[in-house]
Amino acid sequence: MIILGLNAYHADSSAAIFKDGVLIVATEEERFRRIKHWAGFPSQAIQFCLKEARVTLADVDYICIGRDTKAKFFRKALFVLKNITKKNTVIFDRFKNRKKITSIEKELSALSGLHEADIRLKIKNVEHHRSHLASAFFASPFDEAAILSIDGSGDFTTTMIAVGKGNQIEVLDSIDFPVSAGLFYTAFTQYLGFPHYGDEYKVMGLAPYGNPIYVEQVRKVLQFKPNGLFGWDADYFANTTEIKLDYSTNVPEISALYGKKILEVFGKPRDHGEELAQKHKDLAASVQKVCEELILHILNHLQKRTGLKNICIAGGVAQNSVANGKILENTAFENLYIPSAGHDAGISMGSALYVYNHLLKQKRTPAVYSAYTGSKFSNEEIEVFLQKRNIKYVRFEDEQLYEKVVNKLIEPGVVGWFSGRAEFGPRALGARSILADPRNPKAKELLNSKIKRRESFRPFAPSILKEYTGDYFERIEDVPFMEKVFPIRKEKREIIPAVTHVDGTGRLQTVMKEVSPKYHALIDKFRERTGVPILLNTSFNENEPIVNTPAEALDCFLRTQMDMLVLENCVIER
Question: Would you say 312 and 140 are in contact if contact means Cβ atoms under 8 Å apart?
Fold first, then answer.
């Protein structure tokens, strides 16, 4: 059985293909369009997935779309009636987007040559948050687990809690738009002078530089309910009907979410580009702390309600790796799974899994621990490309390659590493990565100023051999997708300053030999030479989507100050 899953006309549009329940290929449209968070129809991602799976759309049994315009119909209608006399930007934008969703048959017909009527028979619509739930639970190793989907909004829902057992998911409760943990965090992100869609991670990175002295004021924005859910004080936010969620240019744009009461309580918002004052850092710390409290509030009640020891989480808020790192320590849950694409790109994967497991009641397949489902290029293809560009290079065997790269890292040097299939999700996990020596105290400054060209406060991640996690981190958990932040042992912080954030933590990736053999071998070679089983790892890009092809990798290398570029086994040096 072949299933094509889609996230279309929504931020981080994507496609994924499963064969008999096994994930074969998945990728985001942004990797091809070269525009972050691309929100249109994922035509190039679809074509790529079909080609990699060696099938046509005619071969596909089901086309699953992570959007159901009929979901919560009566609640949507009531929302419209209550606000019928008001300026209603949000409803107008959602109506335009709904028309696009219903035209997917036409898009797929143009792409494949199949008749729209034939395509229509294959389509299954899956509610946004049910897709998130499925992306986490059905990809997890757990036969039974509590599940949380939490983000900005989707299909008029912002939070959904559920229980998964075997191949079924039972939804327990949900929270309707506009009350949203994601929009709460975004409102303060905008207030702090980070206006672009997806900037929330900047607030998370800024938070450790501040003290959470505004927690009491920020906590008043939300209302923690006895049932484990939450509400909010609407006066702190923009008029709900005037919120603009615009995907018309295929670049997600969201209007200002903070309202007059935030200005009354916290004062003038920071202008974009304005110097960060201590107040801004303290507010970031306070918002992050309250966000963590909210997540733990939901999860502690969910655990008591279900009595389960396993928890699966997805949705945009599940990308808050600082909060994720505190879950098992502060709840009665014992095991946690978060997918590599916990954000909206994972909707394509989740909608397909929901149909295969929940609707069709098919048997679960093995857990997903590999995010390597994207583009791949052979050494021969790369050599042809480099020769056409008149680029000097040397091709090495694997062992020679590891020695060469480790020598460059120790110099110290910065290496662009392009190896195997690209990752699915927002994190570079050793397939499309920029690498450096974590022992180099100047590496962070060098990378931020001369290569990534981004804010100086943003940290870099440690990729660590899984078997050495306990030697360097205070907690031992599997973190295959760089989805958790843990405290680094105090005695190790001076050894790896480049990946130790200001608060003594690191957003780690535990690298497994069976999942990432080449990346594991490279880190192990570095360990043999230095005694440190860690590399500094950041995404291979420069204010753009992560590079997807050798051409994009080469262009990024040439316009930045990297010292070496590795394209599979081909090495280019300056």
Answer: yes
Cis amide bond preceding 178, omega within 30? yes
Q: Is 145 helix (H, G, I), strand (E, B) or coil?
A: strand
- Model confidence at 97, pLDDT cuts 50, 70, 90, reads low
Tokens of 418: 């392009």
Q: How far apart are CA 401 and CA 78, in angstroms?
A: 63
Confidence of residue 98 (pLDDT cuts 50, 70, 90): low
Cα separation of 533 and 540, whole Å?
21
Q: How far is CA 145 from CA 6, 88, 562, in A?
A: 25, 39, 44
pTM for the full predicted model: 0.96
What's the rounded Cα separation, in Å, for the pair 107 and 335? Answer: 41
Tokens of 503: 């608060």
Tokens encoding 456 = 């100086």
User: What whole-number distance in Å separates Cα of residue 38 and Cα of residue 247?
Assistant: 9
Domains delineated in the chain: 2-138+345-359 (3.30.420.40), 150-337 (3.30.420.40), 379-573 (3.90.870.20)
Confidence at residue 80, expressed as pLDDT on a 0 to 100 scale = 64
Q: Which amino acid is at 294?
A: L
Measured distance CA(351)–CA(335) in Å, rounded:
24
Longest dimension (CA), the chain: 71
